[in-house]
Specification:
Layout: E1 4-5, E2 17-22, H1 25-39, H2 45-66, E3 74-82, E4 85-92, H3 123-130, E5 132-138, E6 143-149, H4 159-169
Antiparallel strand pairs: 1-2, 2-3, 3-4, 4-6, 5-6
């Protein structure tokens, strides 16, 4: 099943992008590439990595846990650029969070030996440290996670205004 992105990318005027994808690791990777392309050059470089890490962790958690032991379902993702960052809403129809509560995000115990470091347990700590306004809700049959990724937007350039400015400089 293919993902279904809307025909338009988000912009800094608050226009949203919507993505629907099948809950699979392969589809998550593919849609992350599309999301980063949709965001384009509007994000400052260090923030591009932050957005990709957070969305990858959230989406992969849904694949691994919400749809564990059942056929892959659908994930719905809504992204809206706002002045304070990127507002995100992620919905799925998988299993609810245990006790209907987000994991606390405590880091796993770290030993001095690299071979003994746990493979998992880092995701919620990353998500909690890189986001703000994190809220989990369980509706009738769906999970909804909303959060904001504090990022800086590059100034939008208006090509029409740039063309007028170039004509003035050229004496036209």
């Amino acid at each position: 099943m293919q993902s279904d992105a809307t025909a338009h990318a988000p912009d800094q005027a608050g226009e949203s992008a919507r993505f629907r994808l099948q809950a699979s690791e392969r589809e998550v990777r593919r849609v992350l590439g599309r999301i980063m392309a949709h965001l384009g050059d509007g994000l400052a470089e260090p923030d591009r990595g932050t957005v990709e890490i957070v969305l990858a962790e959230v989406l992969n958690n849904i694949v691994e846990h919400a749809y564990a032991r059942c056929p892959p379902g659908r994930i719905r993702l809504f992204l809206t650029p706002i002045e304070e960052g990127l507002a995100c809403r992620v919905e799925d129809d998988g299993h609810p969070m245990p006790s209907l509560v987000l994991p606390d995000g405590r880091l796993p115990d770290i030993s001095d030996e690299l071979d003994l470091l746990p493979e998992g347990g880092w995701g919620w700590s990353l998500i909690r440290s890189l986001t703000a306004d994190l809220i989990y809700e369980r509706t009738a049959r769906a999970n909804r996670l909303t959060f904001r990724i504090p990022v800086s937007w590059k100034a939008c350039r208006d090509p029409d205004r740039d063309m007028v400015a170039r004509q003035r400089v050229a004496g036209g």
